[in-house]
Design a protein that fits this description.
Chain B: It is found in: Cytoplasmic vesicle membrane; Endomembrane system; Golgi apparatus. Chain B: Pfam families: Adaptin_N (PF01602), Alpha_adaptinC2 (PF02883). Chain B: Keywords: Cytoplasmic vesicle, Golgi apparatus, Membrane, Protein transport, Transport. The structure holds two protein chains of two kinds. Helices cover 43% and strands 21% of the residues of chain A. In chain A, helix 2 packs across helix 4 (107-117). In chain A, the strands form two sheets. A five-stranded antiparallel sheet of chain A has the order 2-1-5-4-3, sandwiched between helices. Chain A has a two-stranded antiparallel sheet with strand order 6-7. Chain A has seven helices and seven strands, in the order ββαβββαααββααα. Chain B is α+β, with helices and mostly antiparallel strands. Helix content of chain B is 56%, strand content 9%. In chain B, the strands form three sheets. A five-stranded antiparallel sheet of chain B has the order 4-5-6-9-8, with no helix packed on it. A four-stranded antiparallel sheet of chain B has the order 3-7-10-11, covered by helices on one side. A two-stranded antiparallel sheet of chain B has the order 1-2. Chain B is elongated and about 110 Å long. Classes of the chains: A alpha+beta, B alpha+beta.
Chain lengths: 180, 785
């Protein structure tokens, strides 16, 4: 099983943390610090697998974000690279041409997507479509008093090519979308 | 009260902060606002506030005051609230908080909610961070949901069940009925999570494993369908259909096929098929191949399949992708024990990986290389490994050095080669060598008797070059202390002997003493070495001077040694040469305690010598030579006398241990010596486990009116016997029979010959030293028959 999943920026800022085992706050901070040091220090074309304590660490860099996870010893490292790839694709499917800003400003959505993909450190759903549909339908349940978000551009699937619109938005336009 | 600012607004504001202090200020301000909002029990904006709190938590700021609010959100009817509430619970709460338990009721309700997405939230939260108590309380609900026909819920329930089983293994039984037709599902999500659940159950319980073995044909069928089926857009990854499910099935097959012939046979075909048909151009194909190889190696597969697997790994080793090479090395390491010869075929590729730039690959290659070393390839492999040791990063050097020592010890083709290898390691990675290597090396060098001259010469030359590497310096100074005479006399056969004078050697050793680079331990070694040279060199005065200087050293250890050595010069000069004799061959045994009869040529202390102070075994060769002469030469073997006179208490204790299960047979005591007021009586016991061992206790008493101090008893026996002398109870024989000195002698008499003994006594009486030799021939026949 996966023990944790961290998203770290190039500057070492934490963008997402998912823990699948009970860990104290203090220990979490320690792990994050060590992962940041380890992963950010790796030269560009090195092996994506490291050994740390009794875990296998798999990390992959996507643009300005490092995806870093800790695995148990029975887990398949090569497959985990595919898992990370799949998560990025799910984010991309949801946000359309996803970038770090999306994950900063919509971190809660990133978590919701993750929860439709992984539970308890194991893969929950292997189909991208199913995850996409689940996210959409859940959005419809979000109370209207708060948001219009289920109509917003960011949630339309990538294959509708709406992402072009998104990527040309300015910061103001991005910010003016209603949310929490 | 104005509405609290929106989440996005807050994020944008915080990101404009230019310094850490500015950010902290903004955060504190917002936290205060949020706190007062919580106090006011504001339902409308609670969700927004908690969301903001979660963002600030991610930045590293404390958010514990929001924990209860998460619970309130979970309890709310609104889906938005619940979503953020559960997220907050997963981020802010963990098992250690009591608040955590309050969730149980909410989760229970939500597990029975009418909306599947609410149920999903509850299952997900429980499955990610449910504590054992929560799992116990809610397992029933999870089990119910595991049987539902709703695939969205079923898959989540399956992973939730996995978590419950991990937390509370006893509950596993409960989920057994629900697993009945899990594998007949068409939905991949349910299939995948079911396989995970089955895997977890089989790993934890042998009974479950037996029970689920019958699923092997079904699993094989599913896997076959995945491979043979055409393109399925929903599950396709680079041309492969649902690789995640394929790998999981392979992993379950591995567990089911392990140590079971029938199951293994049932999987043979599909494994061969996957191994040969999987597309290897992309990472995803290789991930499946990797899992397949692991499965083949772990089950009872036929040899053809195993060869196929090793060949796949061999191909992996040549792949450009570093990850794949890494994975190959890791797998080969797992299989090297069972399929040693097959892995040997890839040895050259593996050794090439030592030169790879990547740290992970180098480490794996190093471990695997050590596993592949054997008697045939030792020379070649060692060349590569030593080259690696030269050039690798410091983090590897300690492990590599230890590995080299181990391999050299096991497979060294010659003693010279062994010494050379050790030299090479000490000179190139000397500071990374582990502490315990130093005594091991010393022992190795001692035991290679014919190489002493060569070794000391090489070590001396190494010292001249570099005195910074402590293990090297310690071994070198020890050797020079022991074999300095060979060094100076230029006796080396193996290579060109160097011309060294005594003064030069002493210069080097003294240099170690004063150098900043030397640790206290090293200084101890060099001082002792200098002292030992006092019996091997002629420049004794110089040595005396050095030793007396260090008698006032600030370092307590050095001071103690120097003072003791000084005393040796002044008061015990007659014993000095005996004390500092050449070290005997050391037995490399675990500490057996004093119950073993040890060769009289060997150490009587069977434990590995102390790193700090090599024990000064008194081998009174000179005095034994006296005894030898008197008894007519060759049939007497010199005797070791233990000098532990400072611990009479423990000597008594040792005696007690020894005499623990001895039966007192009726061997009459005898008087061995009686002269000048000193009487020595022998009492006998036979050691029960070995009837060839006679245990003699000497009792020395003094009828004169003055004490006999510094009393030392020594004994020698003919060659067919072996003798062990243990510590005396004290070395003062009190006057007027007020007490006695006791000492235990153990004699091994395998040939049952008549026991004879020559004894030598030395003591000080009324201020003057007394020495006497005597022969003891009147042993009662029962003591040696």
């Amino acid at each position: 099983m996966m023990h944790f999943l961290l998203l770290l920026s190039r500057q070492g800022k934490l963008r997402l943390q998912k823990w699948f085992t009970p860990v104290t706050e203090r220990e979490k901070k320690k792990v994050i610090r060590e992962m940041t040091l380890m992963v950010l220090a790796c030269p560009p074309r090195s092996c994506n697998f490291l050994l740390w304590r009794d875990l296998k660490i798999v990390y992959k860099r996507y643009a300005s974000l490092y995806f870093c996870c800790g695995l148990g010893d029975q887990d398949n490292e090569l497959l985990t690279l595919e898992v990370l790839q799949r998560y990025v694709e799910l984010l991309d499917q949801y946000f359309g041409n996803v970038c770090e800003l999306d994950i900063i400003f919509n971190f809660e959505k990133a978590y919701f997507i993750l929860d439709e993909f992984l539970v308890g450190g194991e893969i929950l759903e292997t189909s991208k479509t199913v995850v996409g549909i689940a996210m959409e339908e859940a959005e419809t349940l979000q109370e209207v008093t708060h948001t219009h978000s289920h109509l917003s551009v960011t949630h339309l699937p990538k294959y509708l090519n709406m992402f072009l619109l998104f990527s040309q938005q300015t910061m103001e336009e991005y910010m003016s979308k209603p949310t929490y | 009260m104005p509405a609290p600012i929106r989440l996005r607004e807050l994020i944008r504001t915080i990101r404009t902060a230019r310094t850490q202090a500015e950010e902290r200020e903004m955060i504190q301000k917002e936290c205060a606002a949020i706190r007062s909002s919580f106090r006011e029990e504001d339902n409308t904006y609670r969700c927004r506030n908690v969301a903001k709190l979660l963002y600030m938590h991610m930045l590293g700021y404390p958010a514990h005051f929001g924990q209860l609010e998460c619970l309130k959100l979970i309890a709310s009817q609104k889906f938005t609230d619940k979503r953020i509430g559960y997220l907050g619970a997963m981020l802010l709460l963990d098992e250690r908080q009591d608040v955590h338990l309050l969730m149980t009721n909410c989760i229970k309700n939500d597990l029975n909610h009418s909306t599947q997405y609410v149920q999903g939230l509850a299952l997900c939260t429980l499955g990610c961070m449910g504590s054992s108590e929560m799992c116990r309380d809610l397992a029933g609900e999870v089990e119910k949901l595991l049987k539902t026909s709703n695939s969205y819920l079923r898959k989540k329930a399956a992973l939730c069940a996995v978590h419950v089983i991990r937390k509370v293994p006893e509950l596993m039984e409960m989920f057994l009925p629900a697993t009945k037709n899990l594998l007949s599902e068409k939905n991949h999500g349910v299939l995948h999570t079911s396989v995970v659940l089955l895997t977890e159950m089989c790993e934890r319980s042998p009974d479950m494993l037996l029970h689920f073995r019958k699923l092997v044909p079904q699993l094989v069928r599913i896997l076959k369908n995945l491979i043979m089926s055409g393109y399925s857009p929903e599950h396709d990854v680079s041309g492969i259909s649902d690789p995640f499910l394929q790998v999981r099935i392979l992993r379950l097959l591995r567990i089911l096929g392990r140590s079971d012939d029938d199951s293994s046979e049932a999987m043979n075909d599909i494994l061969a098929q996957v191994a040969t048909n999987t597309e290897t151009s992309k990472n995803v194909g290789n991930a499946i191949l990797y899992e397949t190889v692991l499965t083949i190696m772990d089950i009872k597969s036929e040899s053809g399949l195993r060869v196929l697997a090793i060949n796949i790994l061999g191909r992996f080793l040549l792949n450009n992708d570093k990850n794949i090479r890494y994975v190959a090395l890791t797998s080969l390491l797992k299989t090297v024990q069972t399929d040693h010869n097959a892995v040997q075929r890839h040895r050259s590729t593996i050794v090439d990986c030592l030169k790879d730039l990547d740290v992970s690959i180098k480490r794996r290659a190093m471990e695997l290389s050590f596993a592949l070393v054997n008697g045939n390839n030792i020379r070649g492999m060692m060349k590569e490994l030593l080259y690696f040791l030269d050039s690798c990063d410091p983090e590897f050097k300690a492990d590599c050095a230890s590995g080299v020592f181990l391999a050299a010890e096991k497979y060294a083709p010659s003693k010279r080669w062994h010494i050379d290898t050790i030299m090479r390691v000490l000179t190139t990675a000397g500071s990374y060598v582990r502490d315990d290597s130093v005594p091991n090396l010393i022992q190795l060098i001692t035991n290679s008797v014919e190489m002493h001259a060569y070794t000391v010469q090489r070590l001396y030359k190494a010292l001249l070059d570099d005195i910074s590497q402590q293990p090297l310096v310690q071994v070198s100074s020890w050797c020079i202390g022991e074999y300095g005479d060979l060094l100076v006399s230029g006796q080396c056969e193996e290579e060109e002997p160097i011309q060294v004078t005594e003064d030069e050697v002493l210069d080097v050793l003294e240099g170690l003493l004063v150098s900043n680079l030397s640790t206290p331990v090293t200084r101890g070694y060099s001082l002792t070495a200098i002292m030992k040279l006092s019996t091997r060199f002629s420049s004794v005065n110089r040595i005396k001077k050095v030793v007396s200087i260090y008698g006032s050293s600030i370092d307590v250890e050095l001071q103690q040694r120097a003072v003791e050595y000084n005393a040796l010069f002044k008061k015990y000069d007659h014993m000095r040469s005996a004390l500092l004799e050449r070290m005997p061959i050391m037995e490399k045994t675990a500490s057996n305690g004093p119950t073993e009869i040890v060769q009289t040529n060997g150490e009587t202390e069977p434990s590995v010598p102390d790193t700090k102070l090599p024990p000064l075994i008194t081998q009174p060769a000179n005095q034994a030579n006296d005894l030898l002469d008197l008894l007519g030469g060759n049939d007497v073997v010199p005797v070791i006398q233990t000098t532990l006179p400072t611990k009479p208490a423990s000597a008594g204790g040792e005696l007690l241990d020894l005499l623990g299960d001895l039966s007192l047979s009726a061997i009459p005591p005898m008087t061995a010596y009686n002269k000048n007021g000193l009487k020595i009586e022998f009492t006998f016991e036979r050691a029960n486990p070995n009837p060839n061992i006679a245990v003699i206790t000497i009792h020395a008493t003094n009828t004169t009116e003055a004490d006999m101090t510094e009393f030392v008893f020594q004994a020698a026996v003919p060659k067919t016997f072996q003798l062990q002398l243990l510590s005396p109870s004290s070395n003062i024989v009190p006057a007027l029979n007020q007490g006695s000195v006791t000492q235990v002698i153990r004699v091994l008499n395998p040939q049952k010959q008549q026991l004879r003994m020559r004894v030598k006594l030395t003591y000080t009486h009324k201020g003057s030293p007394v020495q006497d030799l005597a022969e003891v021939n009147n042993f009662p026949p029962q003591s040696w028959q």
